[in-house]
């Protein structure tokens, strides 16, 4: 075979509710877990910085303000879609301290690549 | 925090051209090289690429200037920057095609990036560039272009996965395969399986390159 040379130039969700508050899907969570609400819109999360403590359970509750977005963190093994009219709940108990980035995993337009945030886990 | 856009920045054009010139002088016989051009983002304005209107033309001129031309050129996605305006989208794609016509290498393969095709699931892209997934053979190597961007969530879908399985099945166990995808985070080729968001499916026992 000849050589080959390449040169480079170069969750859980629920059905939407129209006129009522977003529905919340049943997800098994620690009832004592703190709920952290996070909104997504072109091209930002709010808050974009989420501070957690190791071993302390929380529930991340995501909602979109405009269109479908996603959230993916490879380090924390999280990948969910965030759909308008729905609430996506992610139970999370950080196992170790560190800084973990997340980003939008559903292409949402010019600026999508900059839609990201960070979860900081510290004692 | 380092931005993801910064992580996606490509090598400088000057460096790439030097590498291209060096590799174009290598080999003979069955040896060959091809050029992959991507992320020209025609229509983009501002940092980190204030020259988006000119970069493709400059890259094309650099390729044309190489003494030995590549066997083919792959345009590997995001050659236009996304817009919600259909008219502007058409215009950017037409402009891109005009620049591509100026390349001396006429064997050209196109595949979409999310900026080209996530809007309306690739409909406008296909009007200009045709199918979004396909395969071809060149000098003993099997090349396949996979579309994992027409779905904004980066799924390749069952139909395309079925096509890919059928495409790979006839290949010999020691076949050499090159897969082109725009989005790196979805498709993982392993020695004995192909993993996508749609699940894991068995593949022929082929060696793979990615």
Provide the descriptors you would attach to this structure in a database record.
heterodimer, A: 123 residues, mainly beta, Immunoglobulin-like, five-stranded mixed beta sheet, three-stranded mixed beta sheet, disordered N terminus, B: 210 residues, alpha/beta, Purple Acid Phosphatase, chain A, domain 2, 2 domains, three-stranded parallel beta sheet, flat
Q: Which stretches of chain B of 5+ consecutive residues score pLDDT under 50?
A: 1-11, 196-210
Helical content class of chain B: 25-40%
Strand and helix order of chain A:
EEEEEEEEEEE
What would you call the shape of chain B?
flat
Radius of gyration of chain B equals 18 Å
Count the E strands of chain B: 9
- Counted up, domains of chain A total 1
Query: Tally the helices of chain B: what do you get?
Result: 7
What's the SSE blueprint?
The complex is a heterodimer of chains A (123) and B (210).
Chain A: E1 4-8, E2 23-24, E3 34-41, E4 44-46, E5 49-52, E6 58-64, E7 69-73, E8 78-82, E9 86-92, E10 98-103, E11 116-121
Parallel strand pairs in A: 2-9, 3-6, 5-11
Antiparallel strand pairs in A: 3-4, 6-9, 7-8, 10-11
Chain B: H1 4-8, H2 13-24, E1 32-37, H3 52-64, E2 73-76, H4 86-101, E3 108-111, H5 114-117, H6 123-129, E4 134-138, E5 141-145, H7 157-168, E6 176-180, E7 188-189, E8 193-196, E9 199-202
Parallel strand pairs in B: 1-2, 2-3, 5-6
Antiparallel strand pairs in B: 4-5, 7-8, 8-9
Structure description:
The complex is a heterodimer of chains A (123) and B (210). Mean pLDDT of chain A is 82; it is low at 1-22. Chain A contains no helices and 11 strands. Chain A is mostly beta strands and 123 residues long. The radius of gyration of chain A is 17 Å and the shape is globular. Chain A has strands at 4-8, 23-24, 34-41, 44-46, 49-52, 58-64, 69-73, 78-82, 86-92, 98-103, 116-121. The N and C termini of chain A lie far apart (56 Å). By secondary structure, chain B is of the alpha/beta class. Chain B has 2 domains: 11-25 and 32-132, 4-Layer Sandwich (Purple Acid Phosphatase, chain A, domain 2), CATH 3.60.21.40; 133-210, no CATH class. Chain B contains 7 helices and 9 strands. In chain B, the strands form 3 sheets. Chain B has a 3-stranded parallel sheet with strand order 1-2-3. In chain B, strand 5, helix 7 and strand 6 (176-180) form a beta-alpha-beta unit. Classes of the chains: A mainly beta (123), B alpha/beta (210). At the A-B interface, strand 1 of A face helix 1, helix 2, strand 1 and helix 3 of B.
């Amino acid at each position: 075979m000849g050589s080959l040379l390449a040169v480079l130039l170069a969750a859980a969700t629920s059905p939407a509710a129209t006129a009522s508050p977003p529905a919340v899907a049943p997800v098994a969570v620690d009832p004592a877990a703190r709920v952290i609400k996070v909104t997504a819109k072109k091209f930002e999360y709010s808050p974009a910085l989420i501070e957690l403590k190791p071993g302390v359970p929380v529930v991340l509750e995501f909602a979109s303000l405009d269109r479908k977005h996603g959230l993916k963190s490879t380090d924390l093994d999280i990948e969910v879609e965030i759909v308008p009219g729905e609430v996506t709940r992610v139970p999370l108990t950080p196992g170790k301290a560190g800084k973990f980035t997340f980003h939008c995993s559903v292409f949402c337009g010019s600026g999508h690549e900059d839609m990201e945030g960070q979860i900081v886990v510290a004692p | 925090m380092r931005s993801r856009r910064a992580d996606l920045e490509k090598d400088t054009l000057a460096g790439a051209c030097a590498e291209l010139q060096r590799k174009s002088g290598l080999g003979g016989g069955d040896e060959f090289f091809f050029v992959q051009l991507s992320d020209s983002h025609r229509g983009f304005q501002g940092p980190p690429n204030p020259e988006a209107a000119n970069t493709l033309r400059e890259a094309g001129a650099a390729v044309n200037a190489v003494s030995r031309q590549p066997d083919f050129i792959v345009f590997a996605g995001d050659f236009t920057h996304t817009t919600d305006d259909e008219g502007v989208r058409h215009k950017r794609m037409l402009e891109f095609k005009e620049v591509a016509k100026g390349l001396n290498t006429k064997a050209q393969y196109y595949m979409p990036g999310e900026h080209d095709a996530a809007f309306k699931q690739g409909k406008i892209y296909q009007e200009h560039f045709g199918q979004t997934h396909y395969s071809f053979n060149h000098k003993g190597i099997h090349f396949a272009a996979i579309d994992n961007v027409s779905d904004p969530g980066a799924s390749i879908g069952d139909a395309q996965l079925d096509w890919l399985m059928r495409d790979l099945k006839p290949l010999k166990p020691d076949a050499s395969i090159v897969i082109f995808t725009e989005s790196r985070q979805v498709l993982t080729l392993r020695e004995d399986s192909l993993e996508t968001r749609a699940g894991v499916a068995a593949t022929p026992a082929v060696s793979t390159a990615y």
